[in-house]
Automatic annotation (TrEMBL):
Transmembrane segments: none
Originating organism: [Clostridium] fimetarium
Span of domain Fe-S hydro-lyase tartrate dehydratase beta-type catalytic: 8-175
Keywords: Lyase
Name of the protein: Fumarate hydratase subunit beta
């Protein structure tokens, strides 16, 4: 089922999404990859403030290529989400409401998704050039020294994703295998 949501995403909208839903996100999301997550995790360990508010926000696991002339961002495909699994539960407990990436998540992340009424979305890997067309503005807001792994504020319009793990813990990667498995 196609759904349209605004970001930051409300608790109600997050809880209404189901594994398998096609979702189009419009609004403000943030990009952060491995190095930025590690730095945020270390900040939390040292009781320091994070560079972005987690409450109801969505983080896209992405490090873009350089922007072409006239474009706000280069190719913007998802990176493997499991590399953020060590850090995700802490951010979810601070109110992070959604994550966009590709691939499976750990049991600890799934439990944190359920505990916090959050959602894990997948973006299509290998489609970075197409996904970048849905990003209308990109601004580095933290950790500029990390280059492509800096935290960016992204303005998106109808950014296409699929719900993989919903707020109840339903996991599309598990249910799809059962549904389409042929013996």
């Amino acid at each position: 089922m196609d759904k349209y949501v605004k970001a930051p995403i409300s608790n109600e909208d997050a809880k209404a999404l189901r594994a398998g839903d096609y979702v189009y996100i419009s609004g403000i999301i943030y990009s952060a990859r491995d190095a930025a997550h590690k730095r945020m995790y270390e900040a939390l360990q040292n009781s320091e403030n994070l560079p972005i508010e987690m409450k109801n926000n969505i983080i896209y696991y992405m490090g873009p290529s350089p922007a072409r002339e006239g474009r706000p961002i280069g190719s913007a495909g998802p990176t493997t989400s499991s590399r953020m699994d060590k850090y995700a539960p802490s951010l979810l407990d601070l109110g992070l409401k959604g994550m966009i990436g590709k691939g499976k998540r750990s049991e600890a992340v799934k439990e944190a998704i359920i505990r916090n009424g959050a959602v894990y979305f997948a973006a299509v890997g290998g489609a970075g050039a197409l996904l970048s067309q849905r990003i209308t503005k990109s601004t580095v807001i933290a950790y500029d020294d990390l280059g492509t792994e800096a935290i960016r504020e992204l303005e998106v319009e109808n950014f296409p994703v699929i719900v993989v793990i919903d707020s109840e813990g339903n996991n599309l990667y598990e249910t799809a295998i059962k549904e389409y498995f042929i013996e």
